[in-house]
Amino acid sequence: MKRMLTGLLAITVLFAACDKQTTIEPPTNIDQDETPGRQPREEATAVVNAGTVQQYIRGYGGASIRGWIADLTTAQRTTAFSPSSGIGLSVLRVRVSPNSADFAAEKPTIDAAKSFGATVIASAWTAPASMKNNNNIVGGKLNTASYAAYATHLRNFCTTVGGVSAISPINEPNITVTYESMLLTAAEVAAFVAAEGSNLGAPVMAPETFNMDKTYMDTYLANATAASKTTYVCGHIYGKTPYVYSPGKEVWMTEHYTNTNDANNWNDALGVAKEIHDCMNAGYSMYVWWYLRRSYGFLDESGNITKRGYVAAHWAKWVRPGYNKISCTANPTSGVYTTAYKSGSKIVIVAVNQNTAITYQPFTISGVTVPGFNRYRTTSTSNLTSDSFTITGGAFGINLPASSVTTLVSY
Questions:
Q1: Of 43, 172, 275, 301, which one is the catalytic site residue?
Q2: In the chain, fewer beta carbons within 10 Å around the N or the C end?
Q3: 41-53+325-410 sits in which CATH class?
């Protein structure tokens, strides 16, 4: 969406050594990495029911908009997308340039992301100027006489780069900006998709509104032909708290970022964790940050993983494409937010503790037998520290460090 905030200071992320083995304790005890003598709070149980299966998870990712800033390097692609040595992002969003001569340059990053199992989605900000009523890549509308030509343009992009899983014919059609754009009503976007949605070279994701505008999306989907040619409903959450929207198709959140320039600010990063939680709890199948590499990104300008990147890893590394969200108490107590996911008998639980005190969080699990978990925690001073523990009978409790994100991965 935006072309801004260049040349900001890169910050090296500190890594912490792994935690020692930790056993499950009653609330009067404290894990070894927590402050002696500081008693944790005990809260209501988070109930996980693996038998209640919710939305399919496509993944978590970010955008690499090569035409506006420099492309990711080879090393940065690995850091972003490798589940073993990097963040493990499973979605790459790219831009469809209005100049077809730019298409091939997108392929190296696309191929790298796909090699790590990532889904590639593409968004067009504008049609070529010659296809618009103002003959300009900024603003204006797509000429109805150019529908077929624009469909060919989008299809040629997909053919050139290969392996695009979904394409958006227009990014944020409901906002006026001063960069590449088209200002289209919901009915106008629907008219194009109804006419040419089968000819774009990839399944359609639309209408990709700026603010997850329900009225706009409802109007778009009211065109039955456009709706039938739309595989995924997508939008951005600028100015909008994630809300449940059930159009009978997967809902994707395909862009957001917060405009603070220090992606290593832990309070901000913890806010990103809560936002991912909210999107998952609202039923979305995908969460995509704006620029992958930026002062506010999952990677800083030098390609180091930021605190926001480590937060994203708590979902991306272990809640892989093909998992489903399952029933889990979303907010078992004030300041604690939990979601759970499964693939077969594998269970992943992600807990965000926004409290400034250690919180002892009880859990119960039904619908699957879990012998124990590998545990990963990130705090203001540590990144993905790990240990493991066993459980018996489907009930257990753990201390959540103050202001932290914890992921539990069953074994």
A1: 172
A2: C
A3: mainly beta
